[in-house]
Amino acid sequence: MKTRLIVNADDFGLCEPISRGIVHAWRHGIVTATSVVTVGAYFDQGIDLLKDTTLDAGIHLTWIGGEKPLTGAIRGLVDRDGRFNQKYRDIVAAVLAGRFDRDALRVELTAQVARLLDAGFKPSHLDAHQHLHLLPGIQDMIIDIALEFEIPCIRQPKSRRLAPVNLAVAWLQTGMARKLKRHNLNAPCFVGFDASGHCDQGALDRLLPGLKPGVNELMVHPGFDASHFYDWQFRWADEIKALSSDRTRYFLAKHNIELTDFKTCYAA
Known about the structure:
Distance between the termini: 22 Å
Number of domains: 1
Structural class: alpha/beta
Number of strands: 7
Radius of gyration: 17 Å
Shape: globular
CATH architecture: Alpha-Beta Barrel
């Protein structure tokens, strides 16, 4: 079986440096797809930029990080200014305890997908900011949204580390995978979780030899420097450099790894 690789860049639409960096990594590198944040501050401007590419667009559902919901404040998930809470532990605690307005979140996430559709892009894949779609109580909502909008593929992040958070992700992913199978939804073999925000040349050199026969998704975060927007300690520019390097292209060619995208592999 041939080894195929989707290189999926997260966070398009969040801000200009990230969005332009993703396009740069497509134009000069191996990025083939992007996950779009429709609540991002640069979404409206970024859509025109995205239309000038062949990037395969999916939805990056967002209910954390300081962006403002499209549909108004959501009890349990927003701060005093009506923006999504920026603290991961607070969001997770609210969801696990059921201390949030589930119906309002469903309306919001549906609106986020609809906004991408209204901009002229039918999402080929679905994932979520900080992988929150894996949380218990959220998984079924995400699957329902994917089925409603005929989105054939949902990200299934995996980690090889044994830290508690990574083990929790693995446990949640296993349960989600069973649900996807029941609903005939797809998920390529996922790589890149442990290199998130730091997928430089060294990380790529370690990740690419581990690709499996079949379809793989490599999650990346290329961008121009966005540290004045987000204090994430991400190495956006290093990712652009690695994704655009002759070394990376040589490895793919030498091992006959085919670049592809979601819409090619998982036509709805």
